[in-house]
Amino acid sequence: MRSDHSHNKHRGHGRPPGAHEGSGHRGGRHGFRGGWGEREEGRGRRRRVFDSSELRLVLLKLIADEARHGYELIRAVEELSGGFYVPSPGVVYPTLTMLHEMGQIEEAESGGARKAFSITADGSAELATHKKAVDALFARLGELASQRERTDGGPIRRAMQNLRTVLVYRFDRDDVAPDTLHQAAAILDEAAQKIEKL
Question: What are phi and psi of 111, to 5 degrees?
Fold first, then answer.
């Protein structure tokens, strides 16, 4: 059994054994493609989708389902959330390091350049102990996917693109009267209020 000192020494630092530079999510930024992975709350504040212990269980369950490396885990979470949440390599790789140090995952045989990880007996026992929590976390991912689907529908995208085109065509000129700008702003404000009441 590892000492607390050994475990703390590796907590949150570096990549897991076999992980290579550049193997994480391209761009190193989490969130929507054009949105947020950790939704913003006020200026300079963010609300995390998962805390560290929750993400650890999510990654452990994904590895239990199939041996994976870091990049595949990032993509799996993105797909399960419908693109709503994409954890960054800076969060995923330290978590894999922790799981490895805890003896819950181990390096798996793989034919690729990146090292994949598989679950150990200790990891399976951890999932069994926290089965209800794991089920709830994956249900949350499903809810995020549903939310993304509701707020990213085709008709809305079409209408927003149409509005943008009209605004650029009508007001991207120097001869637009101030009164016209105010009238257009009032129309947009009224539409926003009506949508909010739907």
Answer: -90, -5
